[in-house]
Amino acid sequence: MISIIASDMDGTLLNNEMTVSDFNAKAILKAQQQGVHFIVSTGRRYSEAQPLIAAQGITAPLITLNGAEVYDASGKMLDMVPITKTVSRAIFHTLTAQGYYFEVVGNDGVYSNNKVKRIEEIAYLLTNLNPDTSFKIAISLASARLELMDINYVDNYNELLDDPKKHVMKIIAFSQEGPKKLQPLSDELLAKHSSIKITSSSRSNIEINNVNAQKGIAVERYANMLNTPMSDVMAIGDNNNDVSMLKLAGTSYAMGNATVEVKQLANHLTDTNVNDGVGKAILEVLAKQ
């Protein structure tokens, strides 16, 4: 009996237009009407994720920043797991020394030290999601999108560490060379810092969190609050940062567009994110209840 459904967003719940489809929304609302708890588990910030489900009339708790923050359905923060400032400073030094562009997600917003690089990274993401879009057009779209996003620009990320009210929740490093360059970097950082966890949400980035800020850990905490065993939890995802919750959930679904690792790990396979895979998986499970 499934009591909790936890779903990733990008590449999973969201289609390539970055919206929740009507089909997916109806399936979620049907599950909630039948007493099943639905929770979003994403690498996004709360302010980026919540409006996307609210647009479809969905109210649900959110696990954000890969598990670094947890909110209840009303938007109240229940938990926060930052990277320590000492470790953050060391990671900043390593990434800067090796020439990586990276961004910092704080408890009060996203920080960048290079507007041009940020536009380029958004453009690369858009072309990966929509291969028919030229890079030139993607740059234009990224520039327009950037104006709508609340980004804080700083000259030096270490400024964040000097403010006692600011906390580093996640660090995202980018490389268009993908795993060829990012995997050795991940190995180096993990060898130096046992208190971090590294995942990714695309082949061109790595996402660095506190080792206790993982989707699986956060979903399990939420399940414990409801006195629900993990055997009664269903998780749906597509990428590396979903692995921890897919491993712990009794029922796990990989998206049709998921990575090979995720497909091998999950015990069920659903359709792609552009073909309402989340909604189809939910209806499949509800039909068996």
UniProtKB/TrEMBL annotation:
GO terms for molecular function: hydrolase activity. It is an enzyme of class 3 (hydrolase). Keywords: Hydrolase. The keyword Hydrolase applies. It holds the Pfam family Hydrolase_3. This is Cof-type HAD-IIB family hydrolase. PROSITE patterns: COF_1 (PS01228), COF_2 (PS01229). Gene3D superfamilies: 3.30.1240.10, HAD superfamily/HAD-like (3.40.50.1000). Its EC number is 3.1.3.-.
